[in-house]
Amino acid sequence: MKRTADLLKISLLLALLPASASAVLIFNIDTFTTDQLTISIPAGSATLDATGTPPPARFGSSDFYLIDPNGLNSDWLVGNASGTGSGEIDGKAINHFHSLNDVNIGAPHDVLAFLTDDFLSAGDTVTSAILITWSGSNAFDPSAISSLLLTWGADGSGVSYPYGDPQGTTSTSAVPDTGSTAAPLGAGVVALAFARRRLG
Fold first, then answer.
1. Please, are residues 126 and 45 in contact by the beta-carbon 8 Å criterion?
2. What is the pTM of this model?
3. Contact 169, 131 (CB under 8 A)
4. What is the pLDDT of residues 27-58, one digit of tens each?
């Protein structure tokens, strides 16, 4: 009986682990509002994967793209957004940021891009935590996209959706709603103050 319970615990723990956390570049969406999109990638927690359509050895291997994993979508990036950020992959800094609204590559769709300052290879690790923010007044429509796909590189045969190697997909619905979190927090503080006043 105890052995069965132990096996059940182990299987549950394994089920909670990401399927390929050590093989792909997993990213978090920290903020996604009409005015700001922020993503982060912890240092040392991921490596570049090249099991799908690897980018060529040099051309395009410094490029990363955020797109809709469900296909071409030209509705979620609705205004002008400028990007800033920091971080390194294999010691190479991320220092180029682009916002491509309704870009016509194959067909119109929206793309956010960032680039390192040198070429990358499969297996390269995040050596310094990545934090990137794109911002602009009414630049995004979060309701128009349910998740974001991060891809690496550009195919040698031509740049087209989904560009190079898919790295990871993150749901936009998992982003904390700071407004809804602040409301119950504020209510709790008020209730606590009221209770202390009654007791005191």
1. yes
2. 0.73
3. no
4. 999 999 999 999 999 998 767 876 665 565 56
